[in-house]
Amino acid sequence: MNKLYKATFLITMAVATWKVWKIEKNTRFKLRNFDYPKINNAQSKSLLDIASHDLKDI
Question: Taxonomically, which superkingdom (predicted)?
Fold first, then answer.
């Protein structure tokens, strides 16, 4: 009887893992469709200046 419990448990865990994997795969945000905003050098330098100024206050 112990073998039956182990087999049932393993099958149940396999099915649960498969279902969770399937749900996660279908609900994840797909990064390949995401367009990153383009920042030119002046904007990135000003952002860096703001960040470094904020760090000096700490």
Answer: Bacteria
Please tell me the distance from the alpha carbon of residue 14 to that of residue 20, in angstroms, as a whole number.
Answer: 10
For residue 24, what are the domain limits?
A: 3-55
Q: How many domains does the chain have?
A: 1
pLDDT in tens, the chain (58 residues): 798 999 999 999 999 999 998 888 777 666 565 555 666 666 666 767 777 766 665 5
